[in-house]
UniProtKB/TrEMBL annotation:
InterPro entries: Endo/Exo/Phosphatase_dom_1, RuvA_2-like. Keywords: Membrane, Transmembrane, Transmembrane helix. This is DNA uptake protein ComE. SUPFAM superfamilies: RuvA domain 2-like (SSF47781). It comes from Psychroflexus salarius. GO terms for biological process: protein secretion by the type II secretion system.
């Protein structure tokens, strides 16, 4: 875009008025000249109605010029600045070109900071015009959510300040960054199968839930109200008792029972790694149900 110098646009009536004014002025000058040649030149005066007409025409021309120069600004979305709009806002050509190149890539301006970063306009320009920027409501809501989330992230909550994971519902979990409706439902379903979480580590049971999202959940939630079942001594547990552990089926419970019986007890959960197909990665969860005495 190459802004052009401002030019006044005269209508037909304006041109007629100017022509009439020139004729009138010319006539007055001629009259003054001949009056001075007259003996009664000292008595010469301009007719008052004619004088008022001249003033009215001059004022009309001035108003026309002022109207051309004035430009009323209404709120606008900076993503849709046109050539004419940029010219009207006195936006530098280089800045407008940068904005166009950015938008042609399918990218959007979502804040005043974005606009200044992309276009490189001066602080004075931003101070004058950015107050007229108007973004869609959903953009403003998203920005507010990000601000709220950042405020929460800056403050690490204590155990007492965190909410109980066993009391969280789907709507609560959806509000956490990265969870979404799908994983919120999966977390609730897993909690119900376990008859309530016994520890935060059981979030790992939710297939596909990333480490980052687990940490995000645990920033705001932790298990406070767990079931009051006593831990079972794995060295004295029967096959039936072991089978009741959420992470064991009958076949694995039988293998564990026989393994412990053959060794007359174990002193560490790590010894169970010698059992074929034993889920080593589940040991942290198993400790919520079993102990070694």
């Amino acid at each position: 875009m190459k802004p052009q110098k401002s030019q006044l646009v005269w209508t037909t009536s304006d041109r007629v008025g100017i022509f009439a004014l020139l004729i009138l002025i010319g006539g007055l000058i001629t009259g003054v000249y001949f009056a001075k040649q007259s003996k009664n030149s000292s008595d010469f005066t301009i007719d008052e109605p004619a004088h008022q007409n001249i003033l009215q025409i001059v004022d009309s021309l001035k108003n026309k010029q002022n109207q051309q120069k004035s430009f009323k600004i209404y709120p606008f979305n900076p993503n849709f600045i046109t050539d004419y709009k940029a010219y009207s806002l006195k936006m530098p050509t280089e800045a407008f070109d940068k904005l166009q190149a950015y938008r042609n890539k399918g990218q959007w301006i979502n804040s005043k900071a974005d606009f200044k970063k992309v276009t490189g306009v001066s602080d004075d320009w931003m101070k004058t015009y950015s107050g007229y920027f108007k973004f869609p409501d959903w953009v403003i809501e998203q920005q507010q959510k990000q601000i709220d989330h950042q405020k929460l992230a800056e403050k690490e909550l204590s155990f007492d300040e965190k909410k109980d994971l066993n009391l969280a519902n789907i709507e609560d979990l959806i509000k956490i960054k990265g969870v979404g409706d799908y994983y919120a439902k999966k977390i609730i379903q897993r909690r119900e199968r376990l008859n309530g979480f016994r520890g935060d580590v059981q979030l790992k049971d939710v297939y596909g839930l990333s480490y980052e999202v687990e940490n995000e959940i645990m920033k705001y939630y932790t298990v406070k109200t767990s079931t009051k079942n006593k831990l079972i001594d794995i060295n004295t547990a029967s096959i039936i008792q072991l089978q009741q552990i959420p992470y064991f089926d009958y076949e694995l419970a039988r293998k564990i029972f026989n393994f412990i019986k053959l060794r007359e007890g174990i002193s560490s959960f790590d010894e169970l790694n010698k059992i074929k197909d034993f889920p080593t990665y589940k040991i942290p969860q198993l400790k919520l149900y079993l102990n070694i005495q």
